[in-house]
Amino acid sequence: MPLDVGRSRRLATKEQRIALRSMYATCAIDGCDRHFDDCHVHHLKEWDDDGFTDLDNLLPLCSHHHHQAHEGRWRLQLDPSTRQLTVTLPTGQQHSVAHLDLRRQAA
After folding, report:
1. Does 34 map to a domain?
2. Contacts for 70-79 with beta carbons within 8 Å, 24 or more apart?
3. Which range of residues forms the domain containing residue 54?
4. pLDDT tens per residue, range 56-82
5. How many domains does one find in the chain?
6. Mind listing the pLDDT tens digit for each residue in 3-53?
7. Residues 82 and 23 sit within 8 Å (Cβ to Cβ)
8. Structural domain includes residue 70
């Protein structure tokens, strides 16, 4: 099954969720231990701003961090080749840089 569905679907597919779960045991924000199954799948470039429902544009975020990304105006940048996530606050201050291997936990 394809992991990139572009604009044909707004919500993450079952296959995308499986792929994300294999990469992230928890919320993608460094230091957050909220389990993947308690997270929302977040579009880095929002659907309403012509973002794609492709794996390179999706991250699991707990409710708190999902709200920070939207209402708190946190800027999340994902390197698609390494999935390194950089989080920048609205002030321009860097909140965190997380590497995928640091977030992986045994299931």
Report:
1. yes
2. 76/42, 76/44, 77/44, 78/44
3. 14-103
4. 999 999 999 999 999 999 999 999 889
5. 1
6. 999 999 999 999 999 999 999 999 999 999 999 999 999 999 999 999 999
7. no
8. yes
